Amino acid sequence: MDGTGDGREEEAEILNPQPCSSSNRASMDGIGDGREEEAETPNSQSCSSSNRASMDGTGDEKSKSAVTHGLNEFLSKNLCFNISVTRIAAVMFSSHQTRVTAALRTAGLESSNLIVGIDFTKSNEWTGKTSFNNRSLHAIGDTPNPYEKAISIIGKTLSPFDEDNLIPCFGFGDATTHDQEVFSFHNDHTPCHGFEEVLSCYKKIVPNLRLAGPTSYAPVVEAAIDIVEKSGGQYHVLVLIADGQVTRSVNTSEKELSPQEEQTIKSIVNASSYPLSIVLVGVGDGPWEDMKNFDDKIPAREFDNFQFVNFTAIMSKNVSPSEKETAFALAALMEIPIQYQAARELGILGRATGRAKKIVPRPPPVPYSRPQMPTPQPSSLPSTEADERNQAVCPICLTNAKDLAFGCGHLTCQDCGARLSNCPICRQPIRNRLRVFTG
């Protein structure tokens, strides 16, 4: 990492570098005088385990680092940039956000447009138990929550590539959208002006929300496709920030897909016909096993347009904040130059298909207040039908009937309960699940 001095030569030597020409040296942004010699050392060495762990957020010595993997893909796809791989490596290993930006620019990405999608499903209330001091991941306070942190870091790195600094922002998974729609951050569906406004709108919206579910990324992916279509085929990056995997029922076999998985996969495949990259940023405790392998479930696409980044794992590393931010930015953005080049080669840049579904987002949620109830009078009458109906509804999605019981005695619906490790009511570990049949 930048600032260690002795390790920079090893980091820059991953891929048997060849010396850069003087013209290439002059074209690089953000490289100090003297790094040319460091980046051009002729010996080839592998990335150390400490560097690997800090860059990909996994610490798995059997896997290549995100940076090495990305650069090897550069070579395997025979992408021709007027810059040596060594110079890109030197930039990408730097701990400064400006160097990350420079690496993307030298790899061919001159401009893009950003879209942000935020997950407002009910599970955000308990998936911060370990990673966010048992607080809701959407808790607004003096300390930025994981969503605010992820938005800020992505904003620092990708803002220079946003041509007009206009960022369409959508929420999904709340009580108004569930797994069917999205809402816009503005009533008139206009985009936010820069990431400062993204954060400002986010903080205003959160207190008005009722978190719900189930989780599906299909609505926000379709909304992003519609934006790309309306732009005439300009390149866009959809940054999805979410706390959970796509909803999967307990009685869905390993070889089957849930309805939410089917719709999400269908949307991602559809998106590969458009110049759109999708980056899923995972916040909170997870679990994330399915999302790590989600790419493998997606059938043939025009190009590999989807990637998952574990924000929590990277941010939990025992390194400086600036190194964490750089590692996250690299992991999130590493594939974008490759995907951008693939879109160019496929000829899908700068053209509209005429096939995109037209999406009309809902307005942002209005402040929710429970209706004032009259002072209850003593009565021997049974509960009303409405009360009974409320008691029978899943407390997570507020939609499905309770049909799954845990060992502690509390109930949810199957779809929501399938992905829980702790009871959302009493927080006890879930060791047993029992189907409940009514009627």
Can you walk through the features of this model?
The structure is a single chain. The protein has 439 residues and is of the alpha/beta class. It has three domains: 8-91, no CATH class; 110-346, von Willebrand factor, type A domain (Rossmann fold); 385-435, 2-Layer Sandwich (Herpes Virus-1), CATH 3.30.40.10. It is built from 18 helices and eleven strands. Helix 11 links the parallel strand 6 (236-242) and strand 7. Residues 44-54 have a biased composition (Low complexity). GO terms for molecular function: ubiquitin-protein transferase activity; zinc ion binding. This is RING-type domain-containing protein.
Quick recap:
The chain is an alpha/beta fold.
The percent of residues in helical segments reads 25-40%
Radius of gyration, in angstroms, nearest whole number: 24 Å
Largest sheet: 6 strands, mixed
Give the amount of beta strand, in percent.
Answer: 5-15%
CATH class of the largest domain, please? Alpha Beta
Determine the CATH superfamily of the largest domain: von Willebrand factor, type A domain
Give the end-to-end Cα distance, rounded to a whole number of Å.
63 Å
Give the overall form. Answer: globular
| Series of secondary-structure elements, N-terminal to C-terminal | HHHHHHHEHEEEEHHEHEHHEHHHHEEHE
Number of E-state strands: 11
Number of helices: 18
Keywords: Metal-binding, Zinc, Zinc-finger
Region (Disordered): 1-64, 357-385
Biased composition (Low complexity): 44-54
GO biological process, one term: protein ubiquitination
